[in-house]
């Protein structure tokens, strides 16, 4: 755990066309343990729709972090969190094939490019 919890992030608008591959932007480098593929991670996160900027999910709004195995998450998180260190904050921009699949896929976010800001709090 980090000593001083960060506050809920603001998402900066991404300059340029909507990405077709995963974009990883380290907003703050961590100094703790490094996440690895298949790890169980504890995170705070914020998710917004790339096109509209509308927030669709936030652990900050629920007032508690969440812990889960990377293997159970969307491909963009499976690929984008390993290498991140505890205490870091990373922005991931996940095109549909790395998020919830193409439009009509059955999830309310299918077909959408999604932006996440993730604070890594722990690695198990």
TrEMBL record:
PANTHER family to which the protein is assigned, alphabetical: 39 KDA FK506-BINDING NUCLEAR PROTEIN (PTHR43811:SF19), FKBP-TYPE PEPTIDYL-PROLYL CIS-TRANS ISOMERASE FKPA (PTHR43811)
InterPro entries xrefs: PPIase_dom_sf, PPIase_FKBP_dom
Main enzyme class: isomerase
Catalytic activity: [protein]-peptidylproline (omega=180) = [protein]-peptidylproline (omega=0)
A Pfam family reported for this protein in Swiss-Prot or TrEMBL: FKBP_C
Enzyme Commission designation: 5.2.1.8
Protein name: Peptidyl-prolyl cis-trans isomerase
Assigned protein family: Belongs to the FKBP-type PPIase family.
SUPFAM superfamilies recorded: FKBP-like (SSF54534)
Keywords: Isomerase, Rotamase
UniProt keyword ATP-binding present: no
Molecular function GO terms recorded: peptidyl-prolyl cis-trans isomerase activity
Domain PPIase FKBP-type: 38-124
Domain of life, per lineage: Bacteria
């Amino acid at each position: 755990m980090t000593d001083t919890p960060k506050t809920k992030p603001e998402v900066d608008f991404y300059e340029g066309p909507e990405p077709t591959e995963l974009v990883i932007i380290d907003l703050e480098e961590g100094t703790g343990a490094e996440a690895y593929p298949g790890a169980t991670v504890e995170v705070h996160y914020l998710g917004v729709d790339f096109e509209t900027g509308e927030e669709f999910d936030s652990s900050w709004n629920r007032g508690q972090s969440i812990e889960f195995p990377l293997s159970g998450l969307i491909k963009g998180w499976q690929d984008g969190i390993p290498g991140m260190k505890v205490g870091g904050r990373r922005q991931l921009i996940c095109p549909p094939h790395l998020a919830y699949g193409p439009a009509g896929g059955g999830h309310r976010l299918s077909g959408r490019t999604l932006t996440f800001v993730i604070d890594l709090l722990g690695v198990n």
